[in-house]
Amino acid sequence: MDRLHRTGNSVVALKCLLIIHHIIKRGPFILQDQLSIYPATGGYNYLKLSAFRDGATATTWALSSWVRWYARYLETLLSISRVLGYLPCSSSCSMVKENQEHRISSFLNLDLIKDIDSIVTLIEEICNVPDSLAREGDMLVKEIMGLLLNDYVSSVNEIVLRLGEINERLGWLSFGDSIELVCALKRLQDCQERLSVLYLVSKPSIEMMWGLVQELKDKVGSLKVYKEGGNFAELEGKRVSPVRPASLGDC
């Protein structure tokens, strides 16, 4: 981490960030735990590189945008682990993932939607990867893109599990939860075109995710609501659940 903050060389900085990414994915728990120290808990944010600039050459200047984005992406990845309770892209969390379906079935609706929202945030950050490569065939950039593909597939698997569970509970979502869900699904759909450009891959889990996203949006969009006394409410048989004034078109 000290090397990362002392260097002004974009190649060195990218290599440091790659090491951090590899630690997140395959490193021992003790190193991963050290990476998870945040300013909110008294730690120092070593990944705050928004001001990084290497103007030595046109190539290093272009690579600087990769350094800034990559640091922000890794920071997002680590912050999501605080929501999920584990690093979703880490092989060291395999024991947690083995019991995922059982764990997720016990989650509150609000927790499921919060998980989905956080994973969508990570996918959005993947889509923010700089468009222009520093130079054709750059090995560092290729390695980063390979790691991102693995992260993307892992994120898809996490989302599919949660969307499947939400689909089973759809009739019991409050109107407020439905709005939050639709907003997250819309954000995810907005990433679809960019992801198809970045990664020309066809996996059953990816196709399943996009199918579930559209299915859930259609189902939630067809919910019948009525307005009573200035507040929206959801009518399910004889049960009426008051929710905040809003509409599904707010997203």
UniProtKB/TrEMBL annotation:
Domain ENTH stretches: 1-88
Cellular component GO terms, alphabetical: clathrin-coated pit; clathrin-coated vesicle; Golgi apparatus
Taxonomic superkingdom: Eukaryota
UniProt-annotated location(s): Cytoplasmic vesicle, Clathrin-coated vesicle; Golgi apparatus; Membrane, Clathrin-coated pit
Keywords assigned: Coated pit, Cytoplasmic vesicle, Endocytosis, Golgi apparatus, Membrane
UniProt main location, coarse: cytoplasm
Gene3D superfamilies documented for this protein: 1.25.40.90
InterPro entries: ANTH_dom, ANTH_N_plant, AP180-like, ENTH, ENTH_VHS
An annotated Gene Ontology molecular function: clathrin heavy chain binding
Biological process, per Gene Ontology: clathrin coat assembly; clathrin-dependent endocytosis; vesicle budding from membrane
PANTHER family in the record: CLATHRIN ASSEMBLY PROTEIN, OS09G0468150 PROTEIN
Name the UniProt record assigns to this protein: Clathrin assembly protein
Organism from which the protein derives: Sesamum radiatum (Black benniseed)
